[in-house]
Design brief:
- The complex is a heterodimer of chains A (279) and B (302).
- Chain A is mainly α.
- Chain A has 14 helices and no strands.
- In chain A, helix 1 packs across helix 14 and helix 13 runs antiparallel to helix 14.
- Chain B has 302 residues and is mostly helical.
- In chain B, helix 1 packs across helix 13 and helix 4 packs across helix 7.
- Classes of the chains: A mainly alpha (279), B mainly alpha (302).
Chain lengths: 279, 302
Amino acid sequence: MKKITQKIGTVLKFAVLLLVSAFTAFPFLWMVLSALKTKAEVMDVSSLLPSSPQWSNFISVIFDSPLPGYIWDSLLVSVIIVALQVATGAMIAYAMVFLEFKGRNLLFIVVMGTYMLPVAATYIPAYIILSQWNLLNTLTGVVISSTVSIFGIFLLRQAFMQVPKGLVEAARMDGGGHFRILWEVVCPMTKSSFITFGLMSFISAYNNYMWPSLITNDSSKYLVSQGLRSFFIEGGAYGTEWALVMAGSSLIVIPLLILFAFTQKWFINGIGGDTGMKG
Amino acid sequence: MSTALTEGKSRKKSAWKNALTVLLFVLPALIPLIIFWIYPILRSVWLSFTNWDFMTPDYDVVGLKNYISLLKDSRFYNALWNTVVFTAGTLVPTIAGGLGLALLLRKNFRGSGIFKFVLFSPWITPTVAISIVWTWIFKADGGIANIVLGFFGLPALKWINSSSTAMLSVIIVTVWKSLGYAMIFYLSALEKVPAELYEASSLDGAKPLRQFLDMTLPSISPTTFFLMIITMVNSLQAYDQIQILTQGGPSGSTRTLLYMYYQLGFQEFKMGEATAIAVIMIIITVLLSLIQFTASKKWVHY
C-alpha cells in the first residue's frame, strides 16, 4: 500500500514538473519555430511546425538588418561595464572590510540605503547630468552611468568578510601593499563570488533596456533591446513580419541560453546566497 | 625629544598615507555613486517642489503643488491601484510557485538538473526580446494562447488588447520570468534545514503536512521574507514588459506608478509631477522595507 502511494507521488511530481517546464520553455520553442516558418505559415493557425525550416529568415536578419551591429555594441558595452563594476566593487568592498577609517559605518549605511531605492528615481537628474556633459546619445554615456553596481558591492563585501583577517594582516606584515593583497590574497579566495558577480553584471548590462533607451534616440547608438524593439515596431506599419521578428529575437536570446547552460552553477550559487569560499 | 618628534612626524605621515589609501579604494566607486545615485535622488526631491518643464532653464518653486495635483488626479489613483494589483498578482504566484517547485526538486534525481535549467532560464533572457515573443503568443486572432484556450473549450480572450485582461497578461509574463528565480532561493534555503529536525519528528509520527507547516515553513521564513521584499521592489520598478506589451494601456489599465513617471517625465516633460511620483515611490519602498523589517522580527526565525 505504501509503495503504491509512493509511486503515485512520484508520477504526480513528474507530471507537475513537466507541465510547468513545458509552460516555461514554450515561449522559447515557439520563438524558434516561428522564426523558421514562411510568411504564410506563421499566420496560419493550424500549422504548429514549419513544413521546411526557413533558414533564410535568419540569413536576412543577419545580413540585411541592423541587429548584428546592436548585438556587437551591446557585447562591447557590457564587457566594459563588467570590468568597471568588478574593479570599483572589489576596491570599495576591500576598504569596507579590511581598512580601518573614520566613517566606515556611515559609508556602509549610505551604500546599503541606496540598494533598496528604485533606480528610476534617479533617471531625470541623471539624464540632465549626461546632457550637460554632452554624453546623451553616446555609448560612453551608457558606460559612465553604470560604473558601479551596488549589488556587486554587497556580494563582494559578503565574500570578503569570510576571508580570515589574520591572512590579510600577515600579508601586511610581509610588506604587501593593499592592491597586491586584494589581487593575490583576497581575489583567489573569493573567486567564485567574482565569477558570479561578473556573470550577473554582464547579463543585466546586456539585457538593460529602460535607461539606455531613455538616453539614446539615435538608431546608430541602440543596444540590443532597443534595437530589437525598433525592428519590431518598424515592421508594424505594414503588418509585423513575425517570422523575421522571431528570428531576430532568437538571435539575441539563444546565445544567452547557451552561455547560461555552461555557467548555470555560478548563477545558482550566487543567487542562492551561497557565496562562501568554494572553488 | 628629537626622536619623539620624528616619531610624531612619521605617525602623521603614515596617517596621511592611510587616508590616501582609503580614498584610493573608496573613491572609484563612491564618486559615480554620488553622481549617479545619491545626488540624483536628492535632486529629484528638490525638483518635485518645482514647476520645471525641461525646455526652459528657469523654474519656480511651487511647494506642494505637484503633490496636490497628483492627489487630485484620477490617473494617479488608477496607477497606484494598478501597482498594487500588479505587485500582489506577481508576488503570490511567484513565491508559492517557487516554493512548490523547490519542494519537488529538493532531492536530486535523474533529470532534476534539466528541470532547474529550464525553469530558471527565463530570468537571464532579455525582457524586451521575450516580451515581443509573448506579444506574438497573446495575439488576439491566431495567437497560440487563444488556440490553447480553444483546445480546452474555453472562450478566446483579447489579452493585451482589452483593459480587462491586459494586466493579467503582464502578470503572466512577469511570473513566468521570475518563478525560477524564487525557486533557486528556496532550493538553497531548503538545503539548510537541518535533517535531524525531520528525523526526530518522523519518529514522533508527524505527518508530512504537519512537518511542512511546523518545521519547513518556519525555517525558510527568512527566504520568504527576503523574496517578498525583492519581488515588491521589482514590481514597483517593472517597465520593460509593460513598455513592450501594452505601453500602459489599453486606457491606462496597465499604467503603474513607474510607467506614469515615465510618461510624465519623458513624454510630457512635466518634471515636477514626474519627480513627485519618484519621491512617492521612494517613500513606498522605504515604508515597505520598514514594515517588513519590523514584522519579520515576529515571525522570521534566523
